[in-house]
Amino acid sequence: MWPRHGSLLSILSVSALSPAVLAVWPFPERQYKVEGWINSGQLGLDIKGSVVALGDWDADQYLDLFVLDDSRTNVQIHRFDPVGHVYQLAHELSSPKPVENVIPADFNQDGRLDLVLLTVNDGTDQGWWAHGGDDLVAMLHIQEKDGAPRKEGINIEGFTHNQPFIVDADGDLKPDLLGTGRTESGGESLQMWKESDGVFERYQVPLEPATKLCRLAEPHSNAFVDLDGDCLADLFLMCERSGSKRSFQIWRNRKAAGFHLAGEWDLPAGAGAVTFADMDRDGTIDLVFPTCSSVSSSTGIGRGCSINIAYNKQKPLCSSSSGSWLAGLSQVVAVPKKDCRESFDLCTADEAFTFDLGATSDAFTTVPVVSLFPGTTSLLFAEPKTSTSKTAAHIPLRIGDYNIDGFPDILVLVPNNTAAPPSGGIFGGGRNPGVQVRVLENTACKKKDAACQDGKYQARRRHFKVEDEVGMSALDDIWDATNAAWLDVGEDGTLDIIVERTGRQDAGRVTFIKNNAFHDAFFLKALVLDGACQGDACISASDGESYSPYGSNLPGGNFKFTILDTAGNRVPAQIPQMPQTAYRTLQAPYSFFGLGRTNNYIEKLFIGSTKHDLEHYTTIEGVIPNSHIVINPPLPSAANGSAEVREASSDWHKTLYLQPGKWMQWVIATATVIVVILAGVTYMLHNAEKREDELDRRKTMHRINFAAFG
């Protein structure tokens, strides 16, 4: 007999959960089973130093760490092992002089990541560029075929004490160093250093008008980032004004015509490091920075601090680009308007873009620290000044969308007078001061918020609230923090936290905090390469060996897109790729951005490169959320490429990797069980129907036989 329906369900359910079935379960067991923020320890990174840069050294699409030891003369490369889920020491590089910064990039454009070490001139360098002991000397270490950095470096000379940063001034997709250099007359000027056949040559930066260039600040937040909305990176330069005041200049990238001055804006008094992100999700890059009324040079702690957002005022998305899907169909024949951007034409420049940093402006938000953390007005504003550094580097606000809702959040370092436990046990005094890491969630302005007055609420500006979800004790327990940054450990689609520490708590110098909280939203991870190789593989010109170019990211790349939210509104967003490389910015080589809750794919993703060709960007339609996309642009026709590579990129190459969600295995298992149940029920009903048909056939035959006898 066939079992009844209920019995069949029971048998199938038990079979689905039996040990035999679990033994062949195709999905790996989740490493973290508890939701929330989890202290993952050091993950093998038992170091005596600090993490100074992030990059994919071995091009395996896992983020590696560059560590500078306490002597500041030894740089270590720690590779991530995805099997053991730990970092392992892979290579070491020694420097005869103290290292100020480490910049990973593909400087010779062979598809492999290289290293530039910025060191302090000890006075032994000769030549007209030598200027005492406060100037910088850079050393380029090319990555060899075996993956090790070349011990003998290429000297890059002529810098002042102001740290250079990466740009692509001539649009050949090859990183250049831009900074202030010494002139033969003993003065200073803005110069560009470019690698060519193993030698760095210096050029004047094409600025128009060059006479308007300000005196660059030190330390600075100079960046190569798109600020006029055309998907082409511009120059952001921080300027030194009289006294302690600062300003910034933006020079628009006009490709072969050079950089044209768009304007200069004053920063509020006490402004620190500037970071770049689309904070209000309007498709433009905003400025985020702290201000403090005073800063201690010995501790780097600022007092009377606030967190500020200067919103980029550009053309909004056209109203016809929002609403139902019917509006999306009409865009194909729509005529672009002058006062707004259509969603199918996001990479159009707004030459009238501007910033307004006035206290009462609806495009400038100031959130006092005391309103977020009652009882303190302090932030860890700068690194303590060392004997070899002329100035202390400012600590930027770390931007990352940890809850992937589409609005970037902030990591801050907050000094707390009661963070550390009492010394001397139960007989000790009160609790001691320490520095803790705090997560500030990006939230919408409310009418009652003091920081949201003067039209800011009506303009839909943003505010912050201290993240206090269950599991935040993983951060609360750390009180010896010196720095922190966002990164995706294990590349599983969540932003985790790396905390650098003094070691006072005897828990090592580095701690990783795993973000294992459930977020009902989607993300996208994107990477623009430098066009060094054709497609997704490099072929060595000397021996034909194939290797991956995924470590050769392009600083200055950017992404723009629109997506439909759950209410059917079309929302724009813009995300830069590695806009800053000076002063240990700890920025990942790729762009990670939340998409929020959506029932749809990304309609059109715009990918901007730094090329000076007519079309410096490309588009991809129908991008699936929770994926990793790698874009390799074609090398410009005027660029030569590297002689080490057999064939450079000749067209736009796009590769999409899907990232399964945390619950994907359960969805598949549930769907499989349902299919088996439905198949069983169908089979049961099919056989029951066959029996009924057989009985009907026999009854019919029986009646026919009796009729024949009659």
From TrEMBL:
Residues 1-23 form the signal peptide. GO terms for cellular component: plasma membrane. PANTHER family: T-CELL IMMUNOMODULATORY PROTEIN (PTHR13412:SF0), T-CELL IMMUNOMODULATORY PROTEIN HOMOLOG (PTHR13412). Belongs to the TIP family. Residues 549-657 form the T-cell immunomodulatory protein TIP C2 domain. It holds the Pfam family C2_ITFG1. It comes from the Eukaryota. It is found in: Membrane. The chain crosses the membrane at residues 663-685. It is a single-pass type I membrane protein. Keywords: Glycoprotein, Membrane, Signal, Transmembrane, Transmembrane helix. This is T-cell immunomodulatory protein TIP C2 domain-containing protein.
